Amino acid sequence: MPEIPSMCLLHQWLHFIQITVQHHDHHLDEVLVLPIILASGALAIILMWIYRGRTFRHKSHQNSDLEGIQPSEIMLVLTSSKSRKMVGRKGLLPMIDYNLLEAASNSFSELNVSAKRVSGDLYKAHFNEGITALVKKLNGGKQENEREFENEIDLLSIICHPNIISLVGYCFHAETRFLVYEMMENGTLETQLHGPSRGSALSWHIRMKIAVDTAKGLEFLHEHCDPPIIHGDLKSSSVLLDSGFNVKISDFGLAVAVGSQNKANLQHSGALGHVAPEYLLNGELTEKSDVYAFGVILLELLMGRKPVEKTAPSQCQSIVTWAVPQLTDRLQLPNMVDPVIRNAMELKHLCQVAAIAVLCVQPEPGYRPLMADVLHSLIPIVPIELGGLWGP
């Protein structure tokens, strides 16, 4: 029997009470009417509670219902994989047969590489019936490999948000571990900004949409997860983009829950240009560490520069040390912007985004804003048609 929405269910019970009272008005003593109403109301509330519990449990197991991939397509992948089931902390994920992944990725050919990363390269995988997915082949030593693999499964099997990557399944092969994600046609933000196209596909408005989507994902991790989750490895290569340049944050291998004693492995993360100074100094990792990393991404979107660039054969300069001292100069600011988007935005919006970036990368964590505040500041800059609030 189909489930009835809770408000509709309550309405039907109230209607039933009304009819009952009217029908028995001449046969029931007035004293009995109130108990009937109270009992019926209590029953309606209980049914609503049961319904909401069912709905919550149903939603908690929808982590495999991927954005952009139809359920029928998912079932094809699962049935083709001869899958076994592995239980994460709160969910079921299919084990996908290695031979299927190998065939779908053309034996993990270089031609199928979507992005090269320290934590693990991403490969485009083409399954039957035109289904595509991303396969992450984890790098590193066996212990690091296993820890990050289990961490991603534990977290992504229970997190469901439009701006967090969805996990289709996983695979073991000898000592190598594989994670299978939903397909992201436009690869990583790092490749879009610093690859061959040099950001040419990213207009000012698209860049601001990417910033807002990324902020939404982080705000969800910090404000709506219990306990809050610190990503700990956020960088432009962790920001995946679908065909419409919608963001999905990935790379949760080093993520930790607030209050956890676990420490991320900086040498293995490959995110040194995005790492907050307090973590480099004393290993302190908080939500404000993610805010700092977001600020670096915002600077990349504005300037089109890499987080760390060589200034001499043996010298490097971070985008933070290069940009921040100049960002407060309103006249100089337009000249610092990526040429692809130069003069493509209102100066007041450019100044506002620059000010947000400066706040996010403050050396002292206490001076950095919360991701919720960052999100509320950025949304008015994005056009309505791209999910923001701004209109001409």
Automatic annotation (TrEMBL):
Transmembrane residue ranges: 32-51
Molecular-function GO term, any one: protein kinase activity
Cross-referenced Pfam families: PK_Tyr_Ser-Thr
Occurrences of domain Protein kinase (ranges): 108-379
Keywords, sorted A to Z: ATP-binding, Kinase, Membrane, Nucleotide-binding, Receptor, Transferase, Transmembrane, Transmembrane helix
Name of the protein described by the UniProt record: Putative receptor-like protein kinase
Organism: Cocos nucifera (Coconut palm)
